[in-house]
Amino acid sequence: MATSSGSQSPASIARAAAAPNHLAETPAGATLASAICDRLRGEILAGRREPGAKIRLEALKAEFGVSWSPIREAVSRLVAEGLLLNDEQRGYRVAPASRAELAEVLRLRVLLETMALGAAIEQGDDAWEAELLAAHHRLAKLEDRRWDPADAERWETWHRTYHDALIRACNSPILLQFCHLLHDMNDRYRRLYLSAHAFDRDVAAEHREITAATLARDAPRARELLAAHIERTGHNILQSMQF
User: Fold this and answer.
1) d(CA 80, CA 4)
2) Which of 162, 86, 166 is nearest to 124 (CA)?
3) CA-based angle 5:71:192, to the nearest 5?
4) What is the reported pLDDT for 88?
5) Which of 6, 22, 94, 121 has a 20 to 30 Å separation from 13 between CA atoms?
6) Three-state secondary structure call for residue 86
7) Which distant-in-sequence residues (6+ apart) come within 8 Å of 34 by Cβ?
8) 99-240: which CATH topology?
9) Residue ranges per structural domain of the chain
10) Would you identify the CATH topology of the domain 5-94?
11) pLDDT tens for the chain, residues 1 to 243
């Protein structure tokens, strides 16, 4: 969904989810705490660590082969991001998934991402348009062909890249940080949903329409389409939730 999840690169969650447990390939300059935090975040967002699952610090220390300090720092960051909870009686556990939380995330995503998109349309230059076109092209190549579950992680990467590209030119770092955090939280629910449901083919058409309106600099139409896109996908997930 490293400081906050909003400061990650678009592909970092997918890399973290797919990476092996050892830290031999930690990027130069990254701290052990950051590498562990990224790995755990990716596993939580991908559903590998299920909602409510207990997190044992001793097991993490053995799994990653590090001292206590980076483990505690990584876990503290994830608590601050809302992905882990710290219960004095029960210890650390993955934050539960709930209809109430997802509904709040969706409301805030609609509010903030449409605001960011409007600002990006107003301020974005030719380079931004080219970046958006390239991001959509890569995403559409996956969405326009017969769906293969083996493409899931690639789709997650390019889907995140596309949504980042839409709003990157808003010229508001704080707004982008909140948008990225909310997108991470929403992604967790969507991944859990997709683990038990077929891929939604309507998403490809929605992405095309959003891209066309954005490049036409039709801010009201683009914002309306983006809001409907977030709400429709969220509604499908909410309808399927049993908790």
Assistant:
1) 9
2) 166
3) 45
4) 76
5) 121
6) strand
7) 2, 74
8) Four Helix Bundle (Hemerythrin (Met), subunit A) (1.20.120)
9) 5-94, 99-240
10) Arc Repressor Mutant, subunit A (1.10.10)
11) 333 333 333 334 333 433 444 554 454 335 889 999 989 988 888 788 988 899 999 999 999 999 999 999 999 999 988 889 998 777 899 988 889 999 999 999 999 999 999 999 999 999 999 999 999 999 999 888 766 767 777 888 899 999 999 999 999 999 999 999 899 888 888 887 776 666 665 889 999 999 999 999 999 999 999 999 999 988 888 888 865
Looking at residue 169, the DSSP 8-state letter turns out to be G
Tell me, what amino acid is at 166? L
Under 8 Å between Cβ of 61 and 96: no
The pairs formed by 167-170 with CB atoms below 8 angstroms and a separation of 24 or more are 167/113, 167/116, 167/117, 167/119, 167/120, 168/120, 168/128, 168/131, 169/119, 169/120, 169/123, 169/124, 169/125, 169/128, 170/115, 170/116, 170/117, 170/119, 170/120, 170/123
27: exposed, middle or buried (Cβ count in 10 Å: 0-12, 13-18, 19+):
exposed
Distance CA 152, CA 187 (A): 13
Q: Strand (E) positions, the chain?
A: 54-55, 84-87, 91-94
